[in-house]
Amino acid sequence: MARKGEKKHLKRKTAPRIWPVHRKEAVWTLKPKPGTHPLSRCIPLALVVRDMLEFAKTGKEAKKIISQEKIKVNGKVQREGRFPIGLMDVISIPDAEKVYRVFPSGTGFFLHQIEPDETEFKLCRIEDKTVVEGGHVQLNLHDGTSVLIRVNDPKKPEEDVYQTLDTLKLSIPDRDLLGHMKLTIGAPAIIIGGKNRGKSGKITAMEEKIGQKRRELLVTIEDKDGGQFQTILNFIFALGDIDSYIPA
Question: Which tens digits make up the pLDDT trace of 59-69?
């Protein structure tokens, strides 16, 4: 008989390298559900609770904590241990009075504890944009969601000011548009891919080459200590206009 439904398990050896799991400790690990983030850029909520937050010693204990509605993701209670957690997601644990934002690091992800005034919004990068029925602009974001921008004429630059790789500030859980950050020189940003993943600072230079894809353009970032790092535009995540909305 043919297999029905999706696979719920994944071999540890083939799991994404950003996962904090021992490759030879066991054969299998939990596979995240299809949803907000792709497999290569997410981690199941149960592994976050067990291996990153260390609130549980086993996967069974982690699933029990989650099923008891003790964890919120982006302002909503999550009861599914396989729920995918990715970049910039906000994880709340009301009983422990702690809130974290998922940041990139050299080894994958790390949980950055945030203050109460930072818990009501999330930053999302624009990955693509399309014009939908009625001439309105749909912005497709890095976490698999989208935002509809209602305009009178999407061909007018003064109305359609959004560009791919720009960043939106959205309220959670309502997802109201609170702000728009352009990916330009002088903007604070963090590197989300490549060997300099996790480094942050101000964008000081953006090389432009005729015929080269925009996402492959070379970008230079300077940190607060004066150190400079280079990467491609596709690995840049803007955190604000002049000042960062979140400490990186």
Answer: 899 999 999 99
The residue among 162, 181, 200 that closes a domain is: 181
**Is the model's pTM score more than 0.85?**
yes
Structure tokens at 199: 């480094």
What's the CA gap between 161 and 137, in Å, rounded? 10
**DSSP labels, the chain:** ----S---EEEGGGS-TTS---SSS-SEEEPPPSSSS-GGGEEEHHHIIIIIS---SSHHHHHHHHHTT--EETTEE---TT-EEETT-EEEEGGGTEEEEEEEETTEEEEEE--GGGTTEEEEEEEEEEE-TTS-EEEEETTS-EEEE--S-TTSTTT----TT-EEEEETTT--EEEEE---TT-EEEE-SSTTTT-EEEEEEE---TTS-GGG-EEEEE-TTS-EEEEEGGGEEE-BSSSBSS--
Q: Could you tell me the residue range of the domain that residue 35 belongs to?
A: 9-115
Q: Provide the CATH number for the domain around residue 221.
A: 2.30.30.30
Q: Among 90, 115, 140, where does a domain finish? A: 115
Give yes or no: residues 131 and 145 share one domain: yes
pLDDT tens digits, one per residue of 130-179: 888 877 889 999 998 999 988 877 667 666 789 999 999 999 999 999 99
From the list 138, 176, 145, the residue with the least C-alpha distance to 160 is 138
